[in-house]
# Entry
Amino acid sequence: EAVRDEGPRLDVGVGVATGAAYVGCIRSTDRLIWSVLGNTTNLAARLQELTRTHDAWVMIDAATWEKAGGAARGFEPCPALPIRGRREPVDAYLLRRKPDAEPPGAGRAS
# Structure
């Protein structure tokens, strides 16, 4: 049985985008840094930022919605969403926060 801490809650939003990205290790003289670059990565970061203003736990792009199929239950459409740094709006889907609700997957033992 999971024991819950009654301390402050970690309140985060998640942005997910599906597509091509550059993934790799960047080497400096004293360390290795893994990084992910590209339009898909930037879109995921922008969707994550928008979870705050749209009161959502998770925001996903249309490509993720299509690939997830029936697994993306509970998501609401958010069409023609303006995205900072993009000329064209993006169709997205969001999983809205509910008052006093736990985030998806909360309380699950890993």
The two ends are 11 Å apart (CA to CA). The longest helix spans residues 39-53. The longest strand covers residues 90-96.
